[in-house]
Amino acid sequence: MTAVERIEEQLASLRIAKRSALSEEPTYLLDVDVSKPAQSQGGRFVAVSCSNKSVRVYNRETLSFLREYSSCPGILSGVRFAHTCDSRVLSACSDGTVKCWDIRLASQQAVQVFRGYPSNAFISFDINCSDLIICAGTEKVEKDAFLVFWDARGITDCASSTEEPLGVYSESHNDDITKVCFHPVEPNLVVSGSTDGLVNVFDINKDNEDDALLSTCNSDSSVSFIGWSGKDYKQVYCLTHDEGFCWWDIAQLDTEEPLTLLHVVDVRDAVCAGNDGLHYLVGGLYHENADKLFLIGGTSTGKLHLMSCGTEGLSLVGTLCGGHSATVRSFCWSLADESLLTGGEDAQLLLWKPGAVERSLAKKASMKIASSVQKRVRVHNSSLKSRKK
Predict the structure, then answer these.
(1) For the segment 182-197, what is each residue's pLDDT rounded down to a tens digit?
(2) Smallest Cα–Cα separation from 279: which of 314, 208, 329, 228?
(3) Closest by alpha carbon to 37, among 86, 97, 96?
(4) Which of 70, 228, 243, 252 could cysteine-pair with 233, CB 3.0–4.6 Å?
(5) Nearest one of 63, 33, 22 to 345, comparing CA atoms
């Protein structure tokens, strides 16, 4: 069995291990991040960005609720943990700030606020792998859409402060900047995606925006998700708001080889996903051990489809059933323990692990102990149904 086949089999064994208690207030779970592991095990905390303008923090193993931070009146976009301090969590806000909270503190106040320029409304952001630089993308105002940068070195200190920008990139996008994603291991590389269809790769060590722009790739659509993949993460991919997929090899920039590895105009038409079909894409995950890129999509009833990416096309690996009851909006993959966290419009946060058995009765109205038959049915329903070989 090849490494890829082993990984696909592992994905096919995912089961629901935990689910968070349902919130009293119905809210969409829009983005999920896990605190970075101190050693080889997974991180301790999960942070979720919610449609009610709050960030919620949970214990990763139990999914028990720990903290909630409100950003009213601004709307939050995305959530990220610092890489070197798992108690610091950040989110961009439509009020022109990026806020940082310390989950060790009971206070609702952000310990640091990174302020943009007066017209900025941030809808995307990321922090680089060395925790030195924050970058946020803005909505278009008049003719301008900005990438704004800050020095983030203070986030691992205890002092509260307000930080002004280091500067901006203003020429490379002409519409809303929907996604920003730093390179996983190269702190100076960042990729941005926009509703203008462009996916831009920058080296922020360069002196000016023109020199910093290493590559511009056109998705011919509106970008909804971007990520890095491939050996040494020299590939970039994006998903679009009309469910398209583009995949480029940035390593080919200075060669005669084509940049585009794969372009699928509509993944819903390209992947046979059974009777339920495929309604939307959620995102992608690159599996380092198998050197393989996977896409995650789903149905309006909460099923999740896992798809394998190759230069020859996309293929269905399997379907996660029995978890969510509505559209899934967010996920976070952990290579450390091969687990998957998913959040959706049903206000549920689910933790999936290979071969897990769900012991929670959170979905049941009655708290009576389930019979062994009921338990078997529930485990079966929450399993990942592999495609037939």
Answers:
(1) 999 999 999 999 999 9
(2) 329
(3) 86
(4) 228
(5) 22
The 3-state DSSP class for residue 124 equals strand
Helix ranges, the chain (H): 3-11, 209-212, 267-270, 372-381
- Residues 199-215: tens digit of each pLDDT: 999 999 999 999 999 99
**pLDDT in the model for residue 293:** 96
Residues of 375-386 as b/e, b for ≥16 C-beta within 10 angstroms? eeebeeebbbeb
The token pair at 289 is: 């051990």
CB atoms within 10 A of CB 259: 16
C-alpha span between 271 and 259 (Å, rounded):
23
Q: Which domain holds residue 100?
A: 3-386
223, 193 Cβ separation under 8 angstroms: yes
**CA dist list (Å): 359 to 17, 233, 250, 339:** 8, 38, 45, 17
What's the whole-number average pLDDT of the chain? Answer: 87
Residue 107 has pLDDT above 90, yes or no: no
Q: How crowded is residue 56: how many other Cβ atoms within 10 Å of its Cβ?
A: 22
Number of domains in the chain: 1
The pLDDT value recorded for residue 388 is: 40
**Chain position carrying tokens 């049903």:** 346
Q: Which residues of 68-84 are buried (b: 16+ CB within 10 A; e: fewer)?
A: ebebeebbbbbbbbbbe
Burial per residue of 245-258, b for 16 or more beta-carbon CB atoms within 10 angstroms, e otherwise: bbbbbbebeeeeee
Retrieve residue 313's tokens: 């096309």
Q: How far, in Å, CA of 218 to CA of 261, rounded?
A: 13
* Whether the Cβ atoms of residue 136 and residue 125 lie closer than 8 Å to each other: yes
Neighbour count for residue 336 (Cβ, 10 Å) = 13
Alpha-carbon span 125 to 54, nearest angstrom: 16
CATH number of the domain enclosing 168:
2.130.10.10
Q: Rounded mean pLDDT of 66-86?
A: 89
